[in-house]
Amino acid sequence: MKKSKIILASLLLASALGSSSAFASPALTIQINGSVAAPPGVHTAKGQVMVPIRWAAEQLGARSVEWDPKTQTVSIETNEAYDAFEKLSSYVQGLTSQNRRKEDEIWPLPENAKKIAVPHLPLRPLTLNLENQPFEKKKPITLSVNHQPYAVYDIEIHNGHIYVLADWIQQVFKAEVTYDKMANKLSIESPNRDEIETQIKMIEEALIPATPEEAMKLWGRGEQTRSGALQYAALSPELRKKAMERVKNYGWVTGGSSPWVGPITVKEEKKLSDTAVEYTVTYPEITSSGSTTGLEKFIVEKRTVNGKEGWFITELLLASSYYSIIPADPANHASSLYDNL
């Protein structure tokens, strides 16, 4: 009898509510950098938010957005905040301690660098595809960001607008994207360029090599941790200008997952003057199936940069283009150097 009363009460409550939306999900709202936005056609799909990619790109300051229907490619050129974030991320990668075994094999950081308060970059697992949708049944559209292509699945096209999962906004623009399912609210925070540039300046000042050996090891650690930013910090202003042409196209990442640079050995250290030292170093280029020997040769000089004195690489005489963020001097040939190994 008691159970019947409970059921009856529930039915009466449901009847009283009728078509009330008291328990319906709230309308989807979007905030970009704290301001409420209302782009056309934004909706949820399987608990994830789909947003128009052109609208998102324009809101986040992209230089350009183009669509090529023949190649099914969306091409986006990002802004300076994106470039700065990529550079800062590269510094964080190179400055963050690796696992103990890895740290034993790579060049240590200079003492001043160990005191750097490495910024915490917001990271979370990204959901870049709708759940339970096998890749082989989908046709991707290419999303090209600064000439770096991504195959994007779960694309929707409505009324001439291309919609992608909101997490792609984080992947593409380095924005912090959060979705509150209970409140049905999507929040997007773009990188703050001024804050990032301030962090980069503090890091680069702390990284100024106090000795030629520190410059040499800073460059080497950049190769070993795939941090183009650490390599950049070891260069003279003239070489930094050359490096900028390359690092932007590779997102401040140097080398690849295989082969990777193993422990570095100084084969020769030649003092050219009181303010110049020439180094020749070797290292194993390691793959899962074995390794070969890599060789580099460069000159480190004492220079004053931005009013601060330090040691910087001024000439890269020999280096693998795979690991280097600048090309080596073409006048030097690897054959004669390898003969002396």
Q: How many helical elements?
A: 11
Overall average residue pLDDT:
84
**What share of the residues lie within helices?**
25-40%
What is the H/E order? HEEEEHEEHHHEEEEHEEHHHHEEEEEH
Percent of residues in beta strands: 25-35%
Folded structure, characterized:
The structure is a single chain. The protein has 341 residues and is of the alpha+beta class. It is built from eleven helices and 17 strands. The chain has helices at residues 2-17, 53-59, 80-95, 100-105, 111-114, 167-173, 193-206, 212-224, 228-233, 237-247, 334-338; strands at 29-32, 35-37, 43-45, 48-52, 64-68, 73-77, 141-145, 148-152, 156-158, 161-165, 176-180, 185-189, 260-261, 265-273, 276-287, 290-305, 308-318. The strands form four sheets. Strands 13, 14, 15, 16 and 17 form a five-stranded antiparallel beta sheet that branches. A four-stranded mixed beta sheet has the order 2-1-12-11, with helices on one face. A four-stranded antiparallel beta sheet has the order 3-4-10-9. Helix 3 runs parallel beside helix 7. The longest helix has 16 residues, at 2-17.
Structure characteristics:
alpha+beta; 341 residues; 4-stranded mixed beta sheet; 11 helices; 5-stranded antiparallel beta sheet; disordered N terminus; elongated
Topology diagram in text:
Layout: H1 2-17, E1 29-32, E2 35-37, E3 43-45, E4 48-52, H2 53-59, E5 64-68, E6 73-77, H3 80-95, H4 100-105, H5 111-114, E7 141-145, E8 148-152, E9 156-158, E10 161-165, H6 167-173, E11 176-180, E12 185-189, H7 193-206, H8 212-224, H9 228-233, H10 237-247, E13 260-261, E14 265-273, E15 276-287, E16 290-305, E17 308-318, H11 334-338
Parallel strand pairs: 1-12, 6-7
Antiparallel strand pairs: 1-2, 3-4, 4-10, 5-6, 7-8, 9-10, 11-12, 13-15, 14-15, 15-16, 16-17
